[in-house]
Design a protein that fits this description.
heterotrimer; A mainly alpha (312); B mainly alpha (293); C mainly alpha (568); A: 312 residues; mainly alpha; two-stranded antiparallel sheet; C: 568 residues; three-stranded antiparallel β-sheet; 46% helix
């Protein structure tokens, strides 16, 4: 910017014209994307009106009966809505935190491995569980945590009494969070590995000349450099704070752990099983979107206040 | 002195290797199990007797899947979709992320745009309204129905905005003074230094397009036009849902777990092949500092 | 784009004029000679009449569950859902051709397509819908054609007799609105009572009698876990397998243990008629307590799988096929399940179905089911509504008596292709499975000739012969033959020789409040039941459950249902 300040007046006016041109160019660059978003996201949003209706497909949105806030009232009047909401938050929050810490940790460790072949092999392997669906993994997980599985074998080897992890309200959520982190950490670490590559190697050289060891370098250079990505991912994942992972919970839970395992999505699913409930499903979805939007915008504002620059 | 340091280094190296290897192994075992199941006899699989090595080794499920003409048709549709979808996604990601990565001073409207974009990420009208839009645009039963509704990958755009923000302003500045247009700056300066991040979002796009089975199910009315994941999904038989004596005979001959495992293995291989290509951009450690000023 | 829209408008306009043309009774025949007219009319009024010219109809096509396209290498390699053995047969016979508006696998996928077609107000000429509520929705919104005349004029004898075989509970009752038949209901076969399936070889190893009462059943289960029935010297067997949802989803929910409840005259998860003639909910009746007490005791003793709450269906199958479990409750077709086929093939298991546990009168207490399993509907305004009835006729009657090559192709396709009749609707008498078994049995014991069998029965007969031959030669039969023989000739046989008591639920639909509150009530119920069984809660929690269930909407629903019943 310094250069610009010192430039002669003539140059400045040409820059002003340039800036106007640039803005127009920027708008132009945004245009195609905004058209697509308008068509495929904003136009279909009229479907959210179902949340205020008793929607019947054969009648369509324009023919169905309007019921105001009836569906929302219904959601909050359910005897389990509080429990379900709390379960969702607890599971989603634990996942949110650990799905950042573990991948960052792993990315940093992997970055320390100098052998390119191993590094790539390890990275490829850990990214694979992401592609296995929970329907398939459920069998693996139930076997691992069953009375005859390896975890209970360890427990009885050290003299403990066996635990039915998946039928125990003290354990179920822990298993859910742990297995989810295990499944996703490799895939989640991709974005941090990409961020690691943009760290200026010169910084490490300078630090090592100053006598900082590898651990100190990690603490003072690597972590701070990853922070913007970490904050960004946290904020983006806040949008999922009410999504605790339907597929996973649905495939692993059972009525005995409903009190700790039942989440919004599984609950709405079961309501829909009795009879398809377009309106209630839409109302819940809308509610989740609104909360997520507020959270993300709030996170952005907080970040702006704290660090001076927002996330987005 | 020097010796001592390298000893400490060795210890930390060992620990790091140990942790990474344990993490990796924990991911590898279920995959090996899946592969073993896919090559095993269905009776052994049904009895949960397959660990890391196949039992009653056979390749019948692979034969069944690979001999199937529709499998290959769907495979091609998926490839076409991934290529087209990737190009479209990357175009929108880059063209939107660049202006949005600029400060409010240079692009005053950015905050409004950002709000729209984030709104679009979180809100959706649901399956039926989107279907009606797509069908009114006469896109159903075409490849476009698979790539256009998700043309703007908002999550990737936001990631890219932040990667672009990390590119030193000075590079941009210099080019602007030389009279380069934003598009020239984007292509000539930003893209070359952003290869690791481009590879990341490209990977996300590819994975999303490859794995998505739902849009195929919704927008394609003929099973011959299904992309691979949708087709593969169709092959699943949920034996718990069979209450119809007519279906019994057909199901008797197959065990869905062996077949499921085969499907997973086969449909994951393309992703496994593609990954190393992209990986090289973010493992080798591009040094942005080198092109700095 | 514009051009396309324009051409579409034109097409629509043309279609409109065409439609307007057929508005007056024989409009589309206006330009025809009398002879032609007569030919069309004759075709339309004959159950198997062939149209003078090819009639194309749009439909929703159900693909059947099929592992993979196994047509590779067969003559049917190039078949498609609009050109396959079934559709060619219909074309040949009736001169009609399907054009599929959508194709999807039976079940959720297909239902999804149907609801989108309805939402887009663009349904095919003819389609099959699974849900009762969807059919009612179509009727209420005037989207489907009245089929009264079509049914009365064209339904073949088999169809009519099949509906009649359901007596007062005729499937037609469910599609009749203001005296008009609005859909053709697909029949739900009565699949009889569920049995206790036991490892016969284990019973023999331990010199045990086939159990009948609850006590005898407990003794067998006890022996199965304590006396090393497989003789491998290891304590590795478990008791009765059970579904984590315990009961429900009638009829014939494999691994559900509802027979234990019904042995106590407890009928959970359905609406039953009490002594006063009112509909009440089975799960909250006092009889439940005795059943629960017994099941909890069995669980504590290990007679019921200790980990049943966390097992998936695959897990249970694995337990059974690996030879760790030799007892479960399941329907007549259980021998088709991989649980049995795998253990038969690799563990030399032999299975037997036993009528246990029985109620106080020495019979299994079972629960009747809905008489229908989906509906064929015709789009309002479609000019050939009779095609729907004709296809159903061919599917249910004609093709079964026809022994030409074309039908053999269809029979071949049943085993290998994922195609089916364009309308997934076969209409059979409620006890058809039993009838077929009886026919095959008659041939097997020499009292009837093979020629008396229809094409399907012939397949069963051949399987049975192959199975018996293998047994005689001391060899293991093909597991497909095992499944056919065991389920049809052995298990179904017991429907006759050891009949059960059947209770008909007083209400089978979903009442208004159920639509929204049922998930919540069911959660309460399952939580309580399971906790009592595994010993996490005692019996007093059952009374609490009944109270909260009633207060949380159960009473409202009960009242609604009684009102609905008395209104009928």
């Amino acid at each position: 910017m310094k250069q610009g300040n010192n430039a002669p007046a003539i140059r400045r006016t040409s820059q002003a014209g340039h800036a106007g041109k640039e803005k127009r160019m920027f708008h132009l660059m945004m245009l195609p994307g905004m058209i697509m978003l308008f068509l495929f996201t904003f136009v279909p949003l009229f479907g959210s009106l179902m949340a205020f209706q008793n929607y019947v497909p054969a009648k369509g949105i324009f023919g169905s009966k309007w019921v105001g806030l009836e569906n929302f009232k219904f959601i909050f009047s359910l005897p389990d809505s509080r429990q379900v909401f709390v379960n969702t938050l607890v599971i989603a929050f634990a996942k949110l935190v650990l799905n950042i810490i573990v991948p960052v940790f792993f990315a940093i460790l992997l970055n320390e491995i100098t052998s390119k072949i191993f590094k790539r092999t390890f990275q490829t392997i850990v990214y694979l569980p992401h592609f296995l669906s929970w329907v398939v993994l459920a069998t693996v997980v139930t076997n691992m945590f069953s009375l005859t599985g390896p975890f209970n074998a360890v427990i009885s080897a050290v003299g403990g009494s066996p635990i039915q992890f998946l039928a125990d309200n003290n354990w179920f959520r822990k298993v859910i969070v742990a297995t989810d982190v295990w499944k996703e950490f490799g895939y989640n670490s991709v974005v941090y590995l990409a961020a690691l590559t943009s760290i200026d190697l010169g910084l490490y050289e300078a630090a090592s000349i100053d006598g900082a060891n590898r651990f100190e370098q990690t603490l003072h250079i690597t972590l701070p450099s990853l922070m913007p990505t970490v904050i960004l991912m946290t904020a983006l994942n806040l949008g999922n704070i009410l999504n605790a992972g339907f597929d996973q919970v649905f495939n692993l839970y059972n009525p005995i752990v409903y009190e700790t395992a039942d989440i919004i999505d599984t609950y709405v699913y079961r309501i829909g099983m009795v009879e398809r409930q377009y309106s209630i499903g839409t109302a819940v979805g809308l509610l989740k979107s609104v909360i997520s939007f507020i959270l993300i915008m709030g996170a952005n504002k907080t970040a702006k206040k704290l660090t001076g620059s927002g996330i987005f | 002195m020097k010796k001592k340091m390298s000893f400490g280094k060795i210890i930390s190296k060992v620990i790091i290797w140990a942790v990474v290897v344990i993490f990796t192994l924990s991911c590898l075992l279920p995959l090996l199990n899946m592969i073993a199941i896919s090559f095993s006899g269905s009776d052994a699989v049904a009895a949960n007797e397959v660990g890391l090595l196949p039992k009653d080794f056979n390749v019948s499920t692979y034969k069944k899947l690979l001999q199937d003409a529709q499998f290959w048709r769907s495979f091609l549709i998926s490839v076409e979709r991934v290529v087209l979808g990737l190009l479209i996604n990357m175009f929108f990601t880059v063209s939107m992320a660049y202006p949005l990565s600029k400060s409010k001073l240079r692009f005053p409207a950015r905050d409004v745009y950002i709000k729209f974009v984030i709104f679009a990420m979180l809100f959706s009208g649901g399956v039926i309204p989107l279907f009606m839009v797509v069908s009114n645009l006469h896109l159903t039963n075409t490849i476009w129905s698979l790539v256009l509704p998700g043309a703007v990958p908002v999550f990737n755009v936001i990631l890219m905005i932040n990667f672009f923000k990390g590119v030193p302003e000075s590079l941009d500045e210099a080019a602007r003074i030389d009279g380069a247009s934003p598009i020239e700056i984007l292509i000539k300066i930003y893209l070359p230094v952003s290869l690791p991040s481009l590879a990341t979002v490209a990977l996300f796009s590819i994975v999303n397009h490859w794995n998505d089975y739902f849009s195929g199910l919704i927008y394609m009315s003929k099973s011959a036009m299904y992309p691979l994941q949708t087709y593969i999904q169709q092959l699943t038989v949920d034996i718990t849902q069979v209450t119809d004596a007519e279906q019994l005979k057909q199901i008797a001959s197959m065990n869905n777990r062996t077949f499921n495992a085969t499907k997973i293995v086969v449909s994951t291989i393309p992703l496994l092949v593609i990954y190393p290509f992209l990986q090289k951009y973010f493992v080798s450690g591009m040094v942005i500092g080198a092109v700095k000023e | 784009m514009k051009k396309r829209t324009l051409s579409l408008c034109l097409a629509a306009a043309m279609a409109m004029t065409a439609m307007a043309g057929c508005g007056d009774s024989n409009g589309s025949m206006a330009n025809m000679s009398d002879e032609e007219k007569a030919a069309w009319e004759a075709a339309a009024n004959d159950p198997y009449g062939k149209y003078p010219e090819l009639v194309t109809y749009t439909c929703g096509y159900n693909l059947t569950a099929q592992g993979a396209d196994t047509l590779a290498g067969t003559p049917y390699e190039n078949d498609t859902p609009s050109d396959n053995a079934y559709t060619r047969y219909l074309k040949e016979l009736l001169n009609i051709q399907n054009e599929n508006m959508f194709e999807a696998q039976t079940g959720d996928d297909y239902n999804q397509k149907v609801s989108m077609a309805i939402a887009a107000q663009d349904i095919p000429d003819i389609m099959f819908v699974n849900d009762y509520s969807t059919m009612v929705e179509l009727v209420e919104n005037d989207m489907i054609e009245d089929l009264t005349d079509v049914y009365n004029n064209l339904a073949c004898e088999t169809v009519k007799a099949s509906y009649e075989s359901y007596g007062e509970n005729s499937p037609l009752n469910y599609v009749t609105f203001d005296g008009k038949i609005m859909a053709i209901p697909k029949t739900q076969l009565s699949d009889g009572q569920d049995f206790l399936w036991l490892r016969k070889d284990w019973l023999e190893n331990l010199n045990l009698e086939e159990p009948s009462t609850l006590d005898e059943m407990a003794d067998v289960l006890r022996a199965f876990i304590e006396q090393d029935p497989d003789g491998n010297g290891q304590d590795d067997t478990i008791g009765l397998a059970a579904l984590s949802t315990v009961y429900g989803d009638y009829p014939n929910n494999t691994f559900a243990i509802d027979n234990i409840f019904t042995a106590f005259d407890a009928y959970p998860n359905i609406w039953i008629t009490d002594d006063a003639g009112k509909a009440v909910y089975g799960s909250i009746q006092p009889e439940m307590k005795d059943a629960l007490q017994l099941i909890a005791d069995w669980y504590a003793e290990g007679l019921i799988d200790k980990e049943f709450t966390t097992r998936t269906n695959d897990d249970i199958v694995a337990l059974i096929s690996s030879g760790q479990c030799g007892a479960y409750i399941g329907p007549w077709w259980s021998p088709f399940s991989p649980a049995q086929t795998a253990s038969y093939a690799s563990k030399d298991a032999e299975w037997i179905n036993v009528s246990a546990p029985v109620g106080s009168d020495g019979k299994i207490n079972a629960i009747n089911t809905k008489p229908y399993a989906g509906f064929v509907v015709v789009r309002k305004g479609y000019e050939h509504p009779e095609i729907a009835m004709k296809i159903v006729n061919v599917n249910s009657e004609y093709s079964k008596q026809d022994k030409t090559d074309a039908v053999n192709e269809i029979v071949e396709n049943q085993a290998i292709a994922y195609f089916n009749w364009p309308l997934y609707c076969e209409i059979q008498p409620g006890n058809e499975a039993e009838n077929m078994t009886a026919h095959v049995e008659a041939v097997l014991d020499g009292s009837a000739d093979v020629s008396t069998l229809n094409t399907q029965e012939q397949g069963f007969y051949e399987s049975a012969v192959r199975f018996l031959e293998a047994e005689e030669a001391g060899q293991k039969a093909d597991s497909a033959d095992y499944s056919q023989y065991m389920s049809r000739q052995v298990a179904i046989h017991k429907f006759q020789s050891e009949p059960a008591n059947f209770l008909t639920p007083s209400y089978l639909e979903t009442s208004e409040t159920m639509k929204t509150k049922w998930a919540s009530l069911e959660k309460l119920e399952l939580q309580t039941i399971l906790k009592i069984i595994v010993g996490e809660a005692d019996m007093s929690s059952f009374d609490e459950f009944v109270e909260s269930w009633t207060a949380a909407g159960g009473q409202t629903i009960t009242d609604e249902i009684n009102e609905e019943i008395s209104a009928k």
